[in-house]
Each structure stands twice: as structure tokens, then as C-alpha cells.
Specification:
The complex is a heterodimer of chains A (429) and B (393). Chain A is α/β, with parallel strands linked by helices and 429 residues long. Helices cover 40% and strands 21% of the residues of chain A. Chain A is elongated and about 95 Å long. In chain A, 37% of the residues are buried. Chain B has three domains: 31-110, Carboxypeptidase-like, regulatory domain (Immunoglobulin-like), CATH 2.60.40; 114-278, no CATH class; 283-356 and 381-393, no CATH class. Chain B has seven helices and 19 strands. Chain B has helices at 2-30, 151-154, 156-171, 217-221, 267-277, 304-313, 357-378; strands spanning 35-41, 52-55, 58-62, 71-74, 80-87, 94-100, 105-110, 115-117, 128-134, 137-140, 145-148, 192-197, 227-232, 235-236, 248-252, 258-263, 300-301, 322-325, 334-339. The chains are: A alpha/beta (429), B alpha/beta (393).
């Protein structure tokens, strides 16, 4: 008996020890990373030829000095590290005779143009590198490091530094919305093509540090605004408040939030009219909009969702559902940014990528809308479907969704093929 | 049934534990969607143990953590493209991409790393990394031409011996060539890590350009070197005229890319070029070279006033400040820069001298910059020489 028990425990222990990564490690894991900036110079004019983040160890930046000053900045423009070094092309040569001979001559070579590599250690928070001349303060080169950090973390998502970068957005896991009672949460209407493209275009230029996300709450019921504000602040969001559509548009003239939570039922300008004004403005139309309404879903409303909203939530709502919906929208936008950056590196046309992004969202939204419309108990105004118009809405959505799915699959294959050829990960959506 | 009836509850529990244990092992090792990684030596194709394996950037384990050396299993791989990064001491690290489920086994080949550490107990953390690279060429000033010199390429032992000799005569006894007025830290030798890079198929050329040239692969492989020294056995012939190629030379290509060349048999040249490449010191002879006020702790100043102010603030005699000029009269060479260190000064080039007070202060500053990291690693704190202490203008 004792032997059997011991055997079992030994096997159990063996199982634990055989788990990859478990047990004693001879060396600690090495996650040292470097950022290499390749610069071309012509006289005192510098241009960045490439930037790369990779595993490796950096030289000691503190032992050198010179008239050029390198500065690493965070997303708020604060200095993370600065160092100085001599410019490239500096040579000190000497010609001497045999040992004991005291004659010597200097020898210099000038190289007015050439290449220089600046190798930096990876530092938490690094977002930008600038090169300047300390003699006259001239800015010689400036590099946004965000896209390269994104590319690196796409290839190495489990690297501890990448996990830290990804951590600040909570509830990143996709919500199990198929199990959520209808119509508590709907991942709804399709964002318009142009809005998606512009959002993604901006994303390529810079990756913003995950500081507090700003949500603009637009509702004419002060109690709702206050209630949601307190909740979102507790969840780590910053908030802006507007009690009407007009007030919302005024705020947008001064500040761009990360997301707008927009109530439908407001007077005199209702949520749909406000949304129309937002989407007309090229500077605003990329802002994700989450519609907040007391209405239940009808075929008529399903038609209206064809304009650019990113999600839909009904009153009364559970605060956690609202939180999930907000995170879901923000996460989707972030994923789109990161993937577009890779896609462009793989030579994929932006238009093609944006078309797939738009179609994918439309398909997802339409499928969910159709599911709801097909379930009688989920439709408070069942009589709506008895009209020919409503039947046509459902038929049209079905046909259109199937067409969209075919086109999306074709685009997905083309894009994944291009990504594979470059060794990039395929689309995860 | 017989088993259950005869042993009762206890055996039933044991049976459960057994089943659980086996299923745990299987799921732990192979997971739901496992991918096997095999790590091999690129040359011999033998499996390699002790290699550290990272999956998508996260540490997975080493290849000796399972029964079969050289193999590690990634459990539960999602569909898509993934990365496997493998590191092993003595080998170049390798990152391989694979697609799952198209690929369920990944072979990672590691090639030998030509970088050899010369520190008996391994590198010191945060120390200055000096890497020696053998040249396959030398120069004959008599014939005024570059010549092939296979001494180092055919014989690693010869190269290693020359490197060790240079290390011992110029770096490890640096205290004998610096000013006692500002002594080096007693353990200054631990401020250096020494390596040599030996790949006979890709030698350096000490006489391609002033400071020589190194195959491009080096910079990708050894990203952390602070100074690379192209070493060649000897400089042939006697100095004749300026048409000869330089004996020693330093060139800066950016942070971490300081490169110098020197003949192994001329310590004074190694010392002088190290002054440039590692310590940022200026030449103090008058000639065709590069001058600038190398703050902080300069050994050359752009004005007499700066030199005197600096001397005063560091308790040196300001009267020793003098313009850089040749010794002949009238001066055939004169520069608008000033020096303080007396002759024989290593940075004056051709002398078997020492580093003067000013140069030694700069050397101490550079050592202190690296020692900040060393002391932090040791957890002892430690003195550091702030650049703001410099009195130079």
C-alpha cells in the first residue's frame, strides 16, 4: 500500500517537474533588449534610415562624451535618459617609427558622409529619441519609437516588457457576449470605412502611452452623467461631461476624447443628429462612439445602426456591462492600430486593410443584429416585423452579410499571405 | 470491481491520484496543441542541452528540463505565427518563426559564437567591454604598401597570447601609467571586460581606412562592445614620410562603435589609442589630428583661460597651461588649443610616457561612470565623479 502511495506521489512530482519552465533553472531568463537607430549623415544633416528593437545588450552610454546629445523621452516628453557622444567621422591617426623613435605625425581622415548606428538599451517608458548638437542646440534628428516597440511586441507578446505595455487596459479579453442576455450588450453597428482608415492612419504614426483614457459622457439626465462619471473614474478613466448634443460638439472643438458615450434621447438635438455632426467632421469622425439608449432593438433601429457607431448599450444597463463595452471598443481600436502598422510594413495597401477592417466589423454587428431579430421574445415590438418593410430589412441584411463575408475572406487570405511572406503574425481577427 | 470491493475507499482514492498524475504529466508536457522544439548545433547537428527557450518572448524552459536533451515542448499553441528564441552560452542566439498548425516541430540551429571572454571568472556587470579583433593585414612603411599577415588567422593561440600581453601591459597595469596625484581606484581592473572575437573566415583589415575595417556581421553580433581593438602583429619598416599608413588610429562611429587599431608590439600606441577610444582623450602633439575641448575633465582646452581656470579648480599650476605647438623655432605647427600635462605625455604620441594629471582625471571620470553600475550591482553604493565637478568652461 505504502509503495503504491509513494509511486503516485513520485509520478505527481514528476509531472510538476516536467512542466516546461518548472524546476531549477541554471541561468535566469535574459530579456535584455536594444533599440538600434541607423542614421545617415551628410555633413551635419542627419536622417534616420531605420529603427529596430531586438534582443541584445547595449554598450555603456555613460562612459562616453562629446558634442552630440542623445535624449530618450517618454510619452509626456520627460527625459528618460540622456547621454553625449562624439559625432561620426572623427578620426585620430598617428604614424610613428620603430620603438624608440620619437618622431610622430598626426593623420586624419574626414568622412563628411556616412552611416552611424546609435544602440540604446531598452528602457521602460521610452517613446522618442532625439539627437541634437549641444554647441548650438540644433535638433539633428527625431525618431518616434512607438511603431517599432509595437512591432517587437507583436512578435514577442509574452516578453515581460510587452506584457507591462499591454497591461493598463483591463478586461482585454473578448467578452462572452453570446451568453449575455439580449439586449444588455450588443457589439453593434459597423464603423464607416473612412473613419476606420483615418483612425488607423493616425495609429501608424505614433503609439500613445497608455495613460488614462478619456471618455466624453453625453446625456441630458444629470443623474446618469454623475453616476457614470463616478463609476468610470473608479475604473481608471478620465471623463468629460456634456448635457446636450450642442455641449458635446462644443467640447469636441477643444478636446478629443478616446471614446464618446452618447445618449440617443436628448432634446433639442438628439443622439443621432449629434452623431451625424460628429461623423461629418473629418477631425472627429475617427472617435469611437458608444450609443446609450432606452430603446429596445427594432428593425427600424437596426437600419439606423448602419451609420458609424462602435457599440450600443441599452438603458437600464449594468455598470460592468458598460465597462466591458467601453474596453471592448478601445481594445478594438488599439488592435487595429497595431495590425495596420505591421500590414504597411508588409506592403499591404492601406485601403485594402481598411476595407477588411470595416467589413469584419459590419459582419460581426449584422450577425448579432440578425440573431436578435430572429428571436421573437427578444423583440418588444414584434408587430414591426409583420410589415413588408421590416421583412425587407432582415432579408437585405442577410444577403449583404453573406456578400461581405465572401469579400472579407478573400481580403483576409491576401493580407495573411503578405504577412506570412514577411514573417509577421497573421491577422487575429 | 474486484479491486474496488477488496480495497475499499483508500484504493479508490489512490487510483484517482494515479489517473490524475498521468493525465497531468501528459497535459503538462504535451498540452492540447503541442509543438516540439529541437535545438541543434548548426555544425555538428548534435542536440544541445542547457539551451534557454523562449516562446513568443516568454521564457519556456531549457532543453535539459525534459528527458530528451535538446528538446522542449511548447504546450497549447494557438493558431497563427509564433516565435521561438533560443539562447545558449557560446552560441549565437537564434529566433525562428513558425506557423501553427502547419508546423508542429521546429528545428533551431545554433552556430558557435566567435566571441571569447578573457575574464577568468566571467564578465563583470556594467564594466567597460573591450573586444579584440584579429587583422589579416599589416603594413610595410618601407615598401609603402599593405601586406598580408596571416599570423593571427592561422593561429588562434598566437592571437590570444598577443591579446593577453596587450591586456596585461596596457590595461591591467594602468595605475603605473597614470598620475599618482589622482590615483585610480584600487580595484580599477574590475572596470574592464576583455573579449576576443575569432572568426578566421572573416578577419579585420587594419589597413582599410584610417582605423581599419571589420566585417559588418560583427556589429550585429556584438552589440554591447564599448571599444573594438583591431590588433595586427607588427608594423614593418621605419617611418619614412606621410605617405605611409598610420600605425594607430581611432574612429568613432557612434555610441558603442568606437574602433581603434594598433600593433600588438607597440604598447605606447595601444595606450595612446586607448586614450582616444576608451577615455575620450585628445592628442597633445601638434599635427594633423582632431582637437576639441573634451569636457568633462578635458586634457585639451579651447582657450588659455579655460585651461587656467580648470587647473586652478583642480589644484594644478595654471602657469603650466601652454598652447599646442611644435618644438621647433619658429613653430612649424601651432594650434588654437591648450594643454596642461607635462611631457613625456602618452597623448603626445611618440613618447614612452605616462598620462598626466589632467588626462588621469578624465580616466578616473570614465572609470567612475562605469563603476556606478558596478557598485549598484554589488549593492554597496560607491563614489562617482559627477561631470558637474569639472571646472572647465
Amino acid at each position: 500500500m505504502r509503495a503504491i502511495v509513494i509511486s503516485c506521489l513520485v509520478i505527481l512530482l514528476a509531472g510538476i517537474l516536467c512542466t516546461p519552465g518548472a524546476g531549477a533553472q541554471s541561468l535566469p531568463p535574459n530579456y535584455d533588449k536594444i533599440l538600434q537607430i541607423h542614421l545617415d549623415y551628410q555633413g551635419n544633416v542627419y536622417s534616420v534610415s531605420s529603427v529596430e528593437v531586438r534582443y541584445g545588450k547595449a554598450p555603456n552610454l555613460d562612459i562616453i562624451s562629446g558634442p552630440l546629445e542623445g535624449t530618450i523621452l517618454d510619452s509626456n516628453g520627460n527625459v528618460v535618459k540622456s547621454f553625449s557622444f562624439q559625432g561620426p567621422g572623427t578620426t585620430y591617426g598617428i604614424i610613428t617609427g620603430t620603438p624608440g623613435d620619437s618622431t610622430s605625425l598626426g593623420y586624419t581622415e574626414t568622412s563628411p558622409s556616412g552611416a552611424m548606428i546609435v544602440t540604446l538599451p531598452y528602457l521602460a517608458g521610452m517613446q522618442k529619441f532625439t539627437l541634437s548638437d549641444s554647441r548650438d542646440g540644433a535638433l539633428l534628428a527625431s525618431v518616434d519609437l512607438g511603431p517599432q516597440l509595437t512591432t517587437f511586441c507583436t512578435a514577442y507578446p509574452r516578453d515581460p516588457d510587452c506584457l507591462v505595455l499591454a497591461a493598463p487596459l483591463p478586461s482585454a479579453e473578448p467578452s462572452a457576449d453570446t451568453t449575455v442576455p439580449v439586449p444588455t450588450l450588443l457589439l453593434s453597428a459597423a464603423a464607416c470605412f473612412a473613419a476606420g482608415c483615418i483612425a488607423a492612419g493616425i495609429a501608424v504614426r505614433t503609439i500613445r502611452r497608455r495613460t488614462k483614457k478619456v471618455v466624453l459622457i453625453v446625456d441630458d439626465e444629470p443623474g446618469i452623467v454623475e453616476f457614470v462619471t463616478i463609476f468610470l473614474n473608479k475604473k481608471g478613466f478620465a471623463t468629460l461631461n456634456a448635457n446636450s448634443g450642442a455641449a458635446c460638439l462644443d467640447i469636441l472643438k477643444k478636446q478629443i476624447p478616446d471614446l464618446i458615450l452618447l445618449d440617443v434621447r436628448m432634446v433639442p438635438m438628439d443622439g443621432w443628429q449629434t452623431l451625424g455632426q460628429i461623423k461629418k467632421n473629418p477631425g472627429l469622425k475617427s472617435i469611437p462612439v458608444l450609443m446609450l439608449t432606452g430603446s429596445s432593438l427594432t428593425a427600424e433601429l437596426a437600419k439606423r445602426y448602419n451609420i458609424c457607431i462602435d457599440d450600443y448599450i441599452t438603458k437600464p444597463f449594468k455598470l460592468e456591462d458598460l465597462h466591458t463595452a467601453i474596453n471592448s471598443v478601445l481594445m478594438r481600436k488599439q488592435t487595429l492600430k497595431e495590425t495596420l502598422s505591421l500590414a504597411r510594413k508588409a506592403g499591404i495597401e492601406k485601403e485594402k486593410f481598411c476595407e477588411l477592417a470595416t467589413l469584419t466589423r459590419r459582419i460581426s454587428v449584422n450577425r448579432k443584429l440578425l440573431n436578435i431579430l430572429d428571436v421573437p421574445q427578444a423583440i418588444p415590438t414584434q408587430a414591426d416585423l409583420d410589415t413588408l418593410d421590416d421583412m425587407l430589412v432582415v432579408d437585405y441584411m442577410n444577403v449583404k452579410t453573406r456578400d461581405n463575408e465572401k469579400r472579407a475572406e478573400q481580403l483576409r487570405q491576401e493580407i495573411n499571405s503578405a504577412l506570412r511572406q514577411k514573417g509577421f503574425p497573421e491577422l487575429g481577427w | 470491481m474486484t479491486f474496488l470491493s477488496s480495497t475499499g475507499k483508500t484504493r479508490w482514492i489512490i487510483a484517482c491520484i494515479l489517473v490524475f498524475s498521468l493525465s497531468f504529466i501528459v497535459s503538462a508536457v504535451y498540452g492540447q496543441n503541442p509543438v516540439g522544439v529541437v535545438v541543434r548545433d548548426a555544425g555538428t547537428r548534435e542536440n544541445l542541452g542547457e539551451a534557454q527557450v523562449y516562446f513568443d518572448g516568454g521564457y519556456l524552459g531549457d532543453t535539459s528540463s525534459l528527458n530528451e536533451t535538446g528538446i522542449v515542448v511548447i504546450p497549447d499553441v494557438n493558431q497563427g505565427t509564433h516565435t521561438v528564441r533560443v539562447t545558449l552560452s557560446g552560441y549565437n542566439e537564434n529566433t525562428t518563426r513558425f506557423d501553427y498548425p502547419a508546423e508542429t516541430t521546429v528545428e533551431v540551429l545554433l552556430s558557435k559564437n566567435p566571441l571569447v571572454s578573457l575574464n577568468p571568472n566571467g564578465p563583470f556587470p556594467n564594466a567597460i567591454n573591450i573586444v579584440f579583433y584579429p587583422s589579416s593585414t599589416s603594413y610595410s612603411c618601407t615598401d609603402n604598401r599593405k601586406i598580408s599577415d596571416p599570423d593571427y588567422i592561422d593561429n588562434e593561440t598566437r592571437f590570444r597570447d598577443d591579446v593577453m600581453n596587450v591586456v596585461n601591459t596596457t590595461y591591467m597595469n594602468l595605475d603605473q601609467f597614470t598620475s599618482p596625484a589622482d590615483p585610480l581606484p584600487k580595484d580599477y581592473q574590475s572596470s574592464f571586460n576583455f573579449y576576443y572575437y575569432y572568426d578566421p573566415s572573416s578577419p579585420a583589415d587594419a589597413f582599410s581606412g584610417c582605423s581599419g575595417s571589420i566585417p559588418a556581421g560583427y556589429w550585429d553580433n556584438v552589440t554591447f562592445s564599448d571599444v573594438v581593438v583591431i590588433l595586427y602583429p607588427t608594423y614593418y619598416g621605419r617611418y619614412a614620410n606621410t605617405s605611409c599608413q598610420p600605425t594607430g588610429c581611432t574612429q568613432i562611429y557612434g555610441p558603442g562603435q568606437s574602433q581603434m587599431k594598433a600593433p600588438a608590439d607597440q604598447e605606447r600606441i595601444v595606450r595612446l589609442e586607448t586614450g582616444h577610444a576608451l577615455f575620450g582623450l585628445d592628442d597633445t602633439f601638434c599635427g594633423d589630428t582632431f582637437y576639441w575641448q573634451n569636457d568633462p575633465y578635458p586634457n585639451v582646452w579651447s582657450s588659455l583661460a579655460s585651461c587656467q581656470a580648470d587647473a586652478q579648480s583642480h589644484n594644478r599650476d595654471p602657469a603650466q597651461c601652454r598652447q599646442i605647438e611644435s618644438g621647433d623655432s619658429p613653430h612649424s605647427c601651432i594650434r588654437n588649443f591648450w594643454q596642461w600635462d607635462p611631457m613625456p605625455d602618452v597623448m603626445a604620441g611618440a613618447y614612452d610616457g605616462t598620462f598626466g594629471d589632467a588626462a588621469t582625471q578624465r580616466i578616473n571620470y570614465v572609470l567612475s561612470q562605469s563603476r556606478v553600475g558596478i557598485q549598484a550591482q554589488l549593492g554597496t553604493g560607491g563614489p562617482s565623479r559627477s561631470s558637474s565637478e569639472s571646472g572647465a568652461g
